[in-house]
Amino acid sequence: MDSLITAAARALAAGDPLGALNRVALREDPPALALRGIAMAQLGDFSRAKELLRAAARGFGAREAVARARCIVAEGELALVSRDLGWPPKSLAGARLTLEKHGDRLNAAHARHLEIRRLLLIGQLDEAERLLHALDPAPFPPALRAMHELIGAGIAMRRIQTAPARAALERAAEAARLAGISALTAEIEGATIILNRPVARLITPGAAWLVRLDEVEDLFATDTLVVDACRHAVRAGSNVISLAGRAVPFTLARTLAQAWPNDVSRNTLVQRAFRLKVVDESLRARLRVEMGRLRKLLKPLAEINATERGFALTPYPARKVVVLARPVEEKHAAVLAFLADGESWASSALGLALGTSQRGVQRALDELAAAGKVQSYGAGRARRWMTPPLPGIATTLLLPAPLPGD
Questions:
Q1: Closest CA to 151 of 135, 28, 193
Q2: In terms of CB atoms within 10 Å, which of 34, 303, 309, 323 comes out highest?
Q3: How many CA atoms lie within 13 A of 78 on its CB side?
Q4: Confidence of residue 332 (pLDDT cuts 50, 70, 90)
Q5: For 37, what's the count of Cα atoms within 13 Å in the CB-facing half-sphere?
Q6: In the beta sheet, which residues pair with residue 386?
Q7: Is omega for the bond preceding 402 within 30 degrees of 0, making it cis?
Q8: How far is CA 2 from its chain centroid?
C-alpha cells in the first residue's frame, strides 16, 4: 500500500474525509476508489459513495478477497445509515466470515456491529443482545469500543433499563474522547440527550403529563395497573399481558382505564371500539362478546364489572390505574416516530421496522405528505422520506418491542 493510500486511510479513521479526498480524489485504482467512497459517505453523498464502493469491489481481483469484503462491509454501513434495511444482510454476513477467516478481526467486529445495529432498528432485541454479548470489546480500538457501548446503550434504552444505558453511554463517551472523532462524540451526546427527554405521556383521571424513561422504569417497578398504549399491553409489576394485534380489546381496556374508578357507558364503548357513531342492538351484542374476551384476558390483573349504564374496571388487589401513551398521538404516529430521528428512510425499511407491509407504509406516507407532515426526495427505489425531529421528545424508545421479562 503506497503512502498516499495509507495517509488517506488514516485521515478517514480520524474522521477527516476532506483530508482523505485531498490525497486520492484523482485516482481510479480500487484502493483509492474504496477510500473515496468512504469519504463521500462521511460527507453525506450516499449515492456517489455507493457507486465508488461497488466500483472498488469490482476492481479487486480474485486474490483480494479481504479487500472486496471490506468494500461490502462499507456498503453495508452505507445501507444502514441511509436506512436501506432491505439491503441483503447475507452479503454482510458473508463478508464478515471472509474477514474472520483471514484474521481481520477488527473489521469483522465492525461488520458484526452493523448486523446488530440493523437488528436493533427492526426491534429484534433478543438476537441483538445475544450477538453483542458474544463480542469482547477489550481489544477494540477506542472508536470501535465506543460504538460497541453505544449499541449496548441502545438495547438497554429499548428494554427500559436506564441505569445500564447511562453507564454504557459514559463508557462510550470516554472511548470516543480517546478516539478523537467529533462525529462519534456528537452521536453519543445525542443519545444521552434522548435518554433525558420525555418518552411518553402518563394519563390519570383528570391529569396527563410527560414522563422520561427512568420514570417509566420506576412506574413499571410498582404494582400500578398500567395500560401501555405505546406497546399495546396491560401490566402490573412483572405480570405483562400483551394485547398486540387485538385492537378492539385494547381500545376497550384503555377506555375503561382512563375512566377509572368510574364506569363507561355502553354507547361510549361501542363508539370508541368500533368507530361508529350510531349504536344499535347488534353492536351492543358485539360489545358484550368483546368485553367477555377482555375480561378473560385481564383475569390475572383485574375484573371488569357490568354496571347499570356500562362497564367498570376493577384492579386487584387495590391498585392505581394509569394509561401510558405516546407523547404525540395521531394517525400514523408510529411512522412519524421513526421519521423523527432525522434520518431519511425507505418505505421498505419502515415496513421492516414497524413489522407491517410496505404498501401499508406507502399509503401512510402519502397521507402524511398530503398533510405536509413528511417530505420525500428521489424516485423509485431511491425514494427516501424524512421529517424534522420533534423538539424535546424521544419518540421511538417505547415503540412496540419485547418488554422486560418477556
A1: 135
A2: 34
A3: 25
A4: confident
A5: 27
A6: 375
A7: no
A8: 41
Give yes or no for a contact between 304 and 295, defined as CB atoms under 8 angstroms apart. Answer: yes
Helices (H), 102-225: 105-121, 125-133, 142-158, 162-179, 182-195, 213-220
Q: Is the pLDDT of residue 288 over 80?
A: yes
**The predicted structure's pLDDT at residue 318:** 66
CA dihedral of 394, 81, 117, 171, whole degrees rounded to 10? -70
CA–CA distance, 209 with 91 (Å, rounded to integer) = 46
Max Cα distance, the chain (Å): 86
Q: Is the pLDDT of residue 401 over 50?
A: no
Question: What's the pLDDT tens digit per position in 132-152?
Answer: 999 999 999 999 999 999 999
Q: Where are the alpha helices (DSSP H) in 320-357?
A: 333-339, 347-354
Where do the domains of the chain lie, and which CATH numbers do they carry?
3-195 (1.25.40.10), 200-325 (1.10.10.10), 333-386 (1.10.10.10)
What is the model's pTM? 0.79
The end-to-end CA distance of the chain, in Å, is: 51
- Structure confidence by residue, pLDDT tens digits, 162-217: 999 999 999 999 999 998 888 889 889 988 988 888 888 999 888 889 999 999 99
**pLDDT at position 96, please?**
95
CB 242 within 8 A of CB 233: yes
Q: Cell 405521556 maps to which residue?
A: 201
DSSP state letters, 159-195: TT-HHHHHHHHHHHHHHHHHHT-HHHHHHHHHHHHHH
User: Positive or negative CA dihedral for 24, 28, 34, 37?
Assistant: positive
Count of H-run helices and E-run strands, the chain? 18, 11
Q: Rounded to whole angstroms, how far apart are CA atoms 69 and 88?
A: 14
Residue 327 pLDDT > 90, yes or no? no
